[in-house]
Amino acid sequence: MLPQDIILRKRNGQALTPEDIADFIGQLAKGTLSEGQIGAFAMAVWFSGMTRDETVALTLAMRDSGEVLSWPDIDRPIADKHSTGGVGDNVSLMLAPIAAACGLAVPMISGRGLGHTGGTLDKLESIPGYRIMPDADLFRKTVKEAGCAIIGQTSALAPADKRLYAVRDVTATVDSVPLITASILSKKLAAGLETLVLDVKVGNGSFMDNREKAEALARSLVEVANGAGVKTSALLTDMNEPLADAAGNVVEIENCIAFLKGEKRGTRLETVVLAFAADMLQASGLVQTRDEGEIKAREALVSGRAADHFARMVHLLGGPVDLLEKADRYLEKAPAIVPILAREGGHLSTVDTRGLGIAVIELGGGRLRPEDGIDHRTGFSGLKPLGSKVEKGEPLGFVHAANLDDARAMAMKVAGLYTVTVGAAENRPVILGRI
């Protein structure tokens, strides 16, 4: 069928057949469609939506536009996790090695920062020598020997998604639930997964700022992934404050290392990491219940086995063999580190989390344009969680900047992102629901 006929039918609100969708995406992957046709298709989907079956067909067509990995030489369940993005969200860095230590194989295809949210690949590039784009043989070797490998999307995986996303980005069609769903899942399914868990963020630091929108996206992702043959579930998690006590690149790698050494117990971050590990283990059949899975994941963390898997992954992908023991030798420090001082005493009740993410970009730790370089050294560390009691002039955290003037100016700005109240703040759960 001619691409304009497919666009016309979708523009008029008609459901497309799997054959229509496969034909359109096939032409897109071959480069025979114009940007105008791709943009018109995306806008038609934005206005008319897609049924579950259409979205499954779109996801599978985009998955099949390139290489689909298989893992015949690995006798572990193949599992992964994906987050819709937040500030201080470095869950993947700890979750992958914990899951590997518990018997899963985790070939994790991750991305760079998007908007105000940090990117797992940018964080990993803080580690000298770490190869985020290894060849296929090294990727497979790392998954087999370390149990996990966190890398970027290669040109061979879901190439149709790359071209469609580039057009969506400039045609105001990024926020279409069917297109978001197909974009996320096509890459994950191309990695040859058997099970998948999804972290859908809700709050002022996420792309979905209210629960209704987040639930709609989570249900679409879960239904389509299951429809495509991958056992999938989702957790809705709170993003009304940074998840870790750090936001940036080097600082989040330092946070990851501290976590794997058992220094972040009792935190919201630990709650989320262990909850996802438990879901991954249950979905893969390695445990019967989530409670059993959490116990198993915690033991892998406390025993140090998770840290060993992380260290092995880093070394196999080109990083230093002794990163965990000698992190200060390898992770570059910012030239200026200054405290963020509370403007008044009381309890921390709210924070503009998106504002914190934007502040990382302003320090050079994120991108305004895809081609921008970043300063991995910059960001924030030691951020106090909401609900903390503070005195006037007490540090709320620390700014890491390229120079003292930038650090001081940013410390003043970030102090204004927090609201301090007299009464104790409401204790909010970090896990809001499961789908």
Give a description of the structure.
By secondary structure, the protein is α/β, with parallel strands linked by helices. It has three domains: 61 residues, Up-down Bundle (Transferase, Pyrimidine Nucleoside Phosphorylase, Chain A, domain 3); 238 residues, Nucleoside phosphorylase/phosphoribosyltransferase catalytic domain (Pyrimidine Nucleoside Phosphorylase, Chain A, domain 2), CATH 3.40.1030.10; 89 residues, Alpha-Beta Complex (Aldehyde Oxidoreductase, domain 3), CATH 3.90.1170. 45% of the residues lie in helices and 15% in strands. The strands form four sheets. The chain has a four-stranded mixed β-sheet with strand order 1-4-5-13, sandwiched between helices. A four-stranded antiparallel β-sheet has the order 6-9-11-7, sandwiched between helices. Helix 10 links the parallel strand 4 and strand 5. The protein is globular. The model has no long low-confidence stretch (mean pLDDT 93).
The succession of helices and strands, N to C, reads HHHHEHEHHEHHEHEEHHHHHEEHEEEHEE
Please work out how many helical segments DSSP would assign: 17
Which class of secondary structure composition applies to the elements?
A: alpha/beta
- Please give the alpha-carbon distance between the first and last residues: 37 Å
CATH architectural group of the largest domain: 3-Layer(aba) Sandwich
Mean pLDDT: 93
CATH superfamily of the largest domain: Nucleoside phosphorylase/phosphoribosyltransferase catalytic domain
Largest sheet: 4 strands, mixed
Provide the helix percentage: 40-55%
Strand order of the largest sheet: 1-4-5-13
Let me know the number of strands. 13
Number of domains: 3
Can you tell me the overall shape?
globular
CATH topology of the largest domain: Pyrimidine Nucleoside Phosphorylase, Chain A, domain 2
Q: What is the CA-atom radius of gyration, in angstroms?
A: 22 Å
| Low-pLDDT stretches | none
Percentage of residues in DSSP E strands: 5-15%
CATH class descriptor name of the largest domain: Alpha Beta
Looking at the chains present, what oligomeric state does this protein adopt?
single chain
